Amino acid sequence: FLPHLVASLEQVDETYIMVKPDGVQRGLVGEIISRFEKKGFKLTGLKLFQCPQDLAEEHYKDLKGKSFFPKLIEYIVSGPVVCMAWEGVGVVAAARKLIGATNPLQAEPGTIRGDLAVQTGRNVVHGSDSPENGKREIGRLALLASFTLVMDISRLEPLPLFFLVRYLNYAALWFKEGELCQWTPAQAPSLRE
Ligand code: UDP
Ligand code: MG
């Protein structure tokens, strides 16, 4: 629990990356993980997961009403996905660059979608589009919100309660408590002899 909370409070940049079912089925998991590793970001969560319908709908709730929404949900639940949390300075925007444009035909060569995909509806990978959504998708905001409540009950201010209610809707989307790891690289100066 504590590292989870500390990561929230420190406002560490983190993003939610997911290999979609087509990426898993085409054997692209290693390739996709490798691109984020080589760039220099830090993996803090990783699991193979069969996404249930309601989670897919919650994840993509901003797209509800779009004509492609039902097909998108069908696609996301059609087989296991690989869920990942990645950490690092500027990781949200950098990951979007590594992933490339939503339509793989418009994605630059050198990007994941530009190199590995053809169709928008089968674009192999997801990446959070903002730091706020990164936290929401990984599942950090519930903890941030609980902290806000403790702080503000002592001051008896009602406004933060509104935030609590709002953030609780966002509670743990793809990762649960205990599924994320905090670790220090072996080459970190503090661990040298
Ligand atoms: N999508 C689709 N048809 C569209 C637009 C989007 O099937 O016309 C799918 C596609 O898989 C995309 C996902 O919906 O990755 C989410 O759309 P968004 O606009 O958020 O794109 P992304 O953030 O993934 O680049
Ligand atoms: Mg998006």
UniProtKB/TrEMBL annotation:
GO molecular function: ATP binding; nucleoside diphosphate kinase activity
EC number(s) given by UniProt: 2.7.4.6
Top class in the EC scheme: transferase
Annotated coiled-coil segments of the chain: none
Active site: 126 (pros-phosphohistidine intermediate)
GO biological process: CTP biosynthetic process; GTP biosynthetic process; response to hydrogen peroxide; UTP biosynthetic process
Cofactors (names): Mg(2+)
Residues the record lists as binding ATP: 20, 68, 96, 102, 113, 123
Reaction(s) the record says it catalyses: a ribonucleoside 5'-diphosphate + ATP = a ribonucleoside 5'-triphosphate + ADP; a 2'-deoxyribonucleoside 5'-diphosphate + ATP = a 2'-deoxyribonucleoside 5'-triphosphate + ADP
Stretches that traverse the bilayer: none
Domain Nucleoside diphosphate kinase-like: 12-151
Record flagged with keyword ATP-binding: yes
Keyword terms, alphabetized: ATP-binding, Kinase, Nucleotide-binding, Transferase
Protein family membership: Belongs to the NDK family.
Protein name: Nucleoside diphosphate kinase
Positions spanned in the full protein: 71 to 263 of 263
